[in-house]
Amino acid sequence: MRHIISLLLENESGALSRVAGLFSARGYNIEALTVAPTDDPTMSRMTLVTAGREEVIEQIKKQLNKLIDVVKLQDLADGPHIERELMLIKVRAEEDNRPELMRLSEIFRARIIDVTETSYVIEVTGTGDKLDAFVAAIPNGLITEVVRSGPSGISRGAKGLTI
Amino acid sequence: MELSGAEIVVQALQDEGVEYVFGYPGGAVLHIYDAIFKSQAFKHVLVRHEQGAVHAADGYSRSTGKPGVALVTSGPGATNAVTGLATAYMDSVPLIVISGQVPTPVIGSDAFQEVDTVGITRPCTKHNFLVKDPRLLAETFKRAFHIATTGRPGPVLIDIPKDVTDPNVTVSYEYPKSIKLRSYNPAQAGHLGQIKKAVELVTKAERPMVYTGGGVIHGEASKELTELVKHMNLPITQTLMGLGSYPGTDKQFLGMLGMHGTYEANMAMHECDVLLAIGVRFDDRVTGKLDQFCPDAAIIHIDIDPSSISKNVRVDVPIVGPVKSVLRDFLRLVKEESWTGNNQLQQLWWQQIETWRSRLCLNYDRNSSKIKPQFAIETLYNITNGELYLTSDVGQHQMFAAQFYKFNEPRRWINSGGLGTMGFGLPSAMGVQLAHPGKPVACISGEASILMCIQELATCKQHDLPIKIVLLNNGYMGMVRQWQEMFYDKRYSHSYVEALPDFVKLAESFGHVGMNLERPQDLEPAMREAFAMKDRLVFMNVIVDPEENVYPMIAMGQGHHNMHLAPERELA
Ligand SMILES: Cc1ncc(C[n+]2csc(CCOP(=O)(O)OP(=O)(O)O)c2C)c(N)n1
Ligand SMILES: [Mg+2]
Question: What is the B478 CA–ligand 2 centroid distance (Å)?
Answer without folding.
Answer: 5
